[in-house]
From TrEMBL:
Flavodoxin-like fold domain location: 1-197
SUPFAM superfamilies for this protein: Flavoproteins (SSF52218)
Cross-referenced InterPro entries: Flavodoxin_fold (IPR003680), Flavoprotein-like_sf (IPR029039), FMN-dep_NADH:Q_OxRdtase_AzoR1 (IPR050104), NADH:quinone_OxRdtase_FMN_depd (IPR023048)
Binding-site residues, FMN: S9, S15, A16, S17, M93, Y94, N95, F96
Keywords, ordered alphabetically: Flavoprotein, FMN, NAD, Oxidoreductase
Protein name per its UniProtKB record: FMN dependent NADH:quinone oxidoreductase
Gene Ontology MF annotations: electron transfer activity; FMN binding; oxidoreductase activity, acting on NAD(P)H as acceptor; oxidoreductase activity, acting on NAD(P)H, quinone or similar compound as acceptor
Note describing how the cofactor binds: Binds 1 FMN per subunit.
Highest taxon of source: Bacteria
Gene name in the database record: azoR
Assembly with partners or alone: Homodimer.
Length: 207
């Protein structure tokens, strides 16, 4: 079984989402010590945002050495994602949505012909069969009924994006309201850690 672990917070050791994503991976490793984990830190080693020059190089046009290296990086990112049975993502909320670092990674895995296709019947996801677990950290409360709920463009986007490429098994573990006070942050992280510790293990795919 292969697990891809991504972090996208710019806060390093002070990141709540990193703490929760690490707890998720620890739990899944405890359940399956043979788990093959690949880690990518999207803040420490950011993926470049898409450019017209990159798209031309990816389509086979001559490009600079830097562009060819970017194409190779994109290929590696796609290969990591397609090979993974489980994907764990640390996703902080920045300005009501995901970080720009995570969006840049998404732009490398949401690729026509690789993870989705179009036909006369509309779009079809090609990346099904994966489990995606997302560690969400945000300063306010955005759950159902909360005053700030309409401002949540993070979870709905991630659920829609992974659904579009064929992944319906998307779980969210939330540390919310961490900006209210140090006490609230501690309680929110403890609750998220408890949820992570109770995760069901990732089961092998049926033969």
């Amino acid at each position: 079984m292969k697990l891809l672990h991504l972090d996208s917070s710019i806060l390093g050791d002070n990141s709540a989402s990193r703490e929760v994503s690490a707890a998720i991976v620890t739990r899944l490793r405890q359940a399956d010590p043979s788990l093959d984990v690949t880690y990518r830190d999207l803040a420490a080693d950011p993926v470049p945002h898409l450019s017209g020059a990159y798209l031309a190089a990816a389509a086979g046009a001559p490009g600079s050495e830097a562009l060819q290296q970017e194409v190779a990086t994109s290929t590696a990112i796609m290969d990591e994602f397609l090979a993974a049975d489980t994907v764990v993502i640390g996703a902080p909320m920045y300005n009501f949505t995901i970080s720009t670092q995570l969006k840049a990674w998404i732009d490398r895995i949401a690729v026509r012909g690789k993870t989705f296709s179009y036909s006369e019947n509309g779009p079809q996801g090609l990346a099904g069969g994966k489990r995606v677990i997302i560690a969400v950290a945000r300063g306010n409360l955005y759950g159902p009924g909360a005053p700030a709920a309409p401002l949540d463009f993070q979870e709905p986007y991630l659920r829609a994006l992974f659904g579009f490429i064929g992944i319906s098994d998307v779980e969210f573990i939330r540390a919310e309201g961490i900006g209210f006070s140090p006490e609230h942050r501690k309680a929110a992280l403890a609750s998220a850690q408890e949820t992570a510790a109770a995760l069901k293990p990732t089961l092998p795919k049926a033969a």
